Amino acid sequence: MSSYLIEAIAILALANIVTRAFPFIIFAKAKPNRWIDYIEKSFPLVILIILIFYTLINVDFSTSPFAYKEIIAIVTAIVLHLIKGNYLLSIFGSTLIYMALVQMV
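Predicted structure:
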């Protein structure tokens, strides 16, 4: 491997580390403002709603199979969230169920 390529990779790696660490270094002692707190609390629900609408956008409820795959995935998301209260588990669990149903059935 040429020294030019090694230097380029090292510079890119350093730039990547610096840009990712920079906000944590600068804002380590700063108190988050209200806007960030609001986004942190509401963003998972927004993602879940977007996924539900995306799932239902091209579904025809009037013909067979009556969107049973989508309904099962949505019910899975609701049940997982009611049981565990974790948005990530709800999103990933229902997405996994939906993808499995789409591929297998």
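Summary: The first helix runs from residue 3 to 26.
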